[in-house]
Amino acid sequence: MLREVLSWCFLFCLGLCVQAPLVVSVKPAPNAALTSVWGPGLEANVVLPARFFFIQVVDNEGRNFTASPGENTFEVKIVAPGEPFSRIWIQVLDRRDGSFLVRYRMYASYSSLHVEVLLKGAHVAKSPYILKGPVYHDNCDCPEASAEAWLKNMHCPPSFPQIQRDLSYFPSVDPDRNARDIPRRFGQRQSLCHYTIKDNQVYIKTHGEHVGFRIFMDAFLLSLTRKVKVPDIEFFVNLGDWPLEKKRTPDVLHPIFSWCGSNDTRDIVMPTYDLTESVLETMGRVSLDMMSVQANTGPPWEEKNGTAFWRGRDSRKERLELVKLGRAHTHLIDAAFTNFFFFEHNENLYGPLVKHVSFFDFFKFKYQINVDGTVAAYRLPYLLAGDSVVLKQDSPYYEHFYRDLRPWEHYIPFKSDLSDLLDQIQWAKEHDQEAKKIAMAGQQFARTHLMGDSIFCYYFKLFQEYAKLQVSEAKIREEMELVEQPKDDLFPCFCHRKKVKDEL
Ligand SMILES: *[C@@H]1O[C@H](CO)[C@@H](O)[C@H](O)[C@H]1NC(C)=O
Ligand SMILES: *[C@@H]1O[C@H](CO)[C@@H](O)[C@H](O)[C@H]1NC(C)=O
Ligand SMILES: *[C@@H]1O[C@H](CO)[C@@H](O)[C@H](O)[C@H]1NC(C)=O
Fold this sequence. Notes:
This protein is α/β, with parallel strands linked by helices. It has helices at residues 2-24, 147-153, 161-167, 175-186, 214-227, 273-280, 317-328, 347-350, 380-385, 421-430, 432-449, 452-469, and strands at residues 36-38, 51-56, 74-79, 88-94, 99-106, 110-119, 122-123, 129-135, 192-198, 201-207, 233-238, 257-258, 261-262, 268-269, 305-313, 333-339, 365-370, 389-393, 397-398, 412-414, 481-483. It is built from 12 helices and 21 strands. The strands form 6 sheets. A 5-stranded parallel sheet has the order 16-15-17-18-20. 40% of the residues are buried. Bound molecules: 2-acetamido-2-deoxy-beta-D-glucopyranose (3 copies).
């Protein structure tokens, strides 16, 4: 409680000091015509759980704003002509760098939409943006039959290097052999889901006891098959933390889809369940997602606390080392456990447990330490999206996008045994502008490559490339059950792509 009062007071006082000089200087004014507005949320055919677009504020001289012109500078209205109510929830998120992220979630489908971006009542840029429909909401089951058309609509990149690399170990994929061998090799001890997608319907058979996490995969596959016709495929998803395929000789390799890859395994990586679910549940069940984080990046760089920060649980030995290091160097690192589960809690060594800190509060600190948990720490996408600089541990574990990240460009690397972590923090402190540049590049990477559209593209490309390797048909195996599309949508849509013969 005292801590909260103190930090509130700290922020409040700081706010006063910073705001005072602004009153005397002449503020540049946002210019409605010069301001730019762009993004996938202005296109009818980019169907996403939460659609989004951007506003870059430009002043009368044509210069970009680099700080917030005020949270409520813009008003965004989305109307469906001819509809008395539009069931659309809109949020205008201030990224406080002179740009805004507008996101909206639709609860019904419309024949067209008008997106109006207004500055003091005047239209901004080319507003109103007219989305000629049909404009479908996420729940509308209306798959685009042509993969080509969908990929083009979504502006998907032609390829993902990680997919090329993962599949390069599999010159071909034999669904019959996999259906026979994979449950035998992994089905007993592991949590596996055997999926078949056939005629764009999803079928599943689970292996192992702990298969609760299938809900993330089920939900994603249903969402994807509502949007696009997925090729017929048969594949196994590993619901556990660790990648499974440890063999190295190509003739016995089995393709397993996992949320985390490692240098010592041949699993095929997918975006993590955490990132996947946050895409599906943006403006829904989750509060931390790649968009919300952009509106909560804490104070500006210059005002961030210069202590390196970490919170988490004791899921790996290096995390114990990190907390010990922090206790020995309190002026450099604030690292503490919020939970003890894996190791015995020794308070003398690791200090008392501390209260859970809201993720958004991490960004009060300039340096964010990313250290492995059980496997890769799935917080990295969110850390990158903030405007702090990430210090990332070298690790054998990786997520689907790590291959595209470059040390010293998007993050500051440190050794897996933490032996150079203090040096790297010291370097960042002594090279503030370089560190800030790395922070901004990491953020730009996250803003460009880790949003919902990219996640949909990644999965689809993966399935498409994988399908090409199959030497025989995907089959609906014995004991597989259909994963049904939800039927409880309040506002059913009419899909223009479906034949009317179903409608009796
Ligand atoms: C202004 O912002 C836009 C959008 O982020 C960017 O593309 C452009 O390069 C910026 N212009 C300048 C001069 O920085
Ligand atoms: C920065 O954070 C550290 C560790 O949490 C704290 O001890 C220190 O007082 C903070 N510095 C300022 C200026 O608030
Ligand atoms: C894992 O592989 C990557 C890419 O080859 C490499 O940069 C990294 O150092 C390796 N890390 C470990 C701990 O094996």
